[in-house]
């Protein structure tokens, strides 16, 4: 291999300040005032005055338990994050207290003894009592779990192996009594709301959400583990069964509440995606934001279905995947205040693990939406925290007036003339779990669609997504009549354990293609190598021609040229067409691949003999970034190498993601989210893009292997988009580079840039 050396870089400290500003995509707030919308909402409780309390198992920034008023965040409750503490799946309030279901995980036997936590292999489920006046503070009671240096007042309800999930999925309270759904023991437990001492209990099969009626009786969602068998049962306060609702066919009730007029509101996360409203009157009332109502008979004649809130079919009505008012998607909660304003919570999928099959992918949902509607169905506000373990890509060739940005499961439009943080609008949800239930997103345990690579090829738009650890490459095609990304292909470097996907080979690597055009998996859809050929894959890339590139641990670089499209519009890849490339000097291990066919340039990151792979930074780009010219059309030429930060504790530094656009390379630091900018031609270090005051000068750690993309606009401005999981968004740097002077390339004994 011939080598063309380049000019040495200037020290970073000598770089002038870059001209840029920071914005963001995917969250109502950017964290400028320590505000952000949490990434998941599993449960809500709405006070008569309209205050909203939320609960979720996890939010990266610690915002599991939230408090909102009139579309504004008042704060997060805390004590639900770290040292084994989690949020939960239920919440209830009365005039004095906020009751939150919470889970406590084991963090080892040593700390279990020291801090009074679950022993190894055990998980606790319980209820914390907090003050309505300040829900960051617990209100103590006799029998609570004692934790040193914590004000959390927590009653242990049940425990299980950490392989099981017996979380409390229902709470209801009035000023006398707290009712708890004990899923593990199949019963409802009642506690005195003031003393938190047990009062009574009665059996209920797999109890989930429950609500207290105006007459004090209870309505309970039972059989909560199975979508198809769920039912809503009416019980007296002592447990006597009084009746049951007959829900519309296909309904999946996930939450319920009563309004001030005694109407029962049920959140239906089935294909209807509506709030069903039951009244004591047999007279069918006017629907809110819905089509004409079909009358239903009911075994519990005290309640009749009289109205619905929301467009029938939700986000999947009309143009499937297009969000908007009353177009619900993944309902998890419903509440109502004293004047009839209805609050709905959504997360794109529904309640966490609600199928109970142990193989559900999205455990934290797919982005939170919290909306409020007036009694006549007008939108009051919509709060959005849409992105988690996600990146974003600006799409080439879009209309310059309203271009698109894709994440793994969403489409946004951009109006760059709008103020900071308001440039983006949520325009499409690309998952359709009703039409395409075999979508890998719904089954793989990573729980996210994956970071996006969008390619427009021969008039077809394709979405490739990559999980955080570069395990698999997923391929989707689009249809023009909807926002849906249809499962089209899948690269698996090894057999996937479990029932999904059906029909996969019994062992080894495979490529799946949707030959029937229906997003299904059948045995005839899989292609495998002739011999066992399953090297560990360390990175993926898809170039603008649609060719798939792999970096592997033992076989260097592999290329799968796209073999056209089949009759369904799926790109075709075959092992028989695969090409191999040896790891080029000075690299000894490949961690990132970026190939640009426009000028036949290859950018490779990895480790060298001089700077070997650092296991502490296991998901990073490693120590060296190299540019090679004439990769396919001649003998590859090493133009330069760049030394990347790659150190372990106590001063951990690393690069997780690398992007190329226009005249620059962009490299995202793992620990800080700061982006290093390099000259593409020479490798010279140009400067830094750091989170600005618009986002609280803060970023979380960069987790993904492909967390950053970049695009040069016709104006010369660059959009650099970077994963920011800590507060549920993607950072958007708007970078205007200086006027470029002509660069000179010098011959020198070394091609390394430090």
- Count of structural domains: 2
> What's the CATH topology label of the largest domain?
Methylamine Dehydrogenase, Chain H
Strand content: 35-45%
Number of helices: 1
In one word, what is the shape? globular
> Whole-Å distance between the termini?
22 Å
Rg from Cα: 27 Å
The structural class is mainly beta
Overall helicity: under 10%
CATH architecture of the largest domain: 7 Propeller
Work out the number of β strands: 52
Overall mean pLDDT score? 92
Outline the biggest β-sheet: 6 strands, mixed
Text of the CATH class of the largest domain? Mainly Beta
**pLDDT < 50 stretches:** 1-12, 283-298, 355-361, 743-754
Brief write-up:
The chain is 1% helix and 38% strand. It has 754 residues and is mainly β. It has 2 domains: 2-23 and 388-753, 7 Propeller (Methylamine Dehydrogenase, Chain H); 38-385, 6 Propeller (Neuraminidase), CATH 2.120.10.30.
What does this structure look like?
This protein is mostly beta strands. It has two domains: 388 residues, Methylamine Dehydrogenase, Chain H, CATH 2.130.10; 348 residues, Neuraminidase, CATH 2.120.10. 1% of the residues lie in helices and 38% in strands. Strands 1, 41, 42, 43, 44 and 52 form a six-stranded mixed β-sheet that branches. Strands 31-32-33-34-35-36 form a six-stranded antiparallel β-sheet, with no helix packed on it. A four-stranded antiparallel β-sheet has the order 2-51-50-49, with no helix packed on it. The protein is globular, with a radius of gyration of 27 Å. The relative contact order is 0.11.
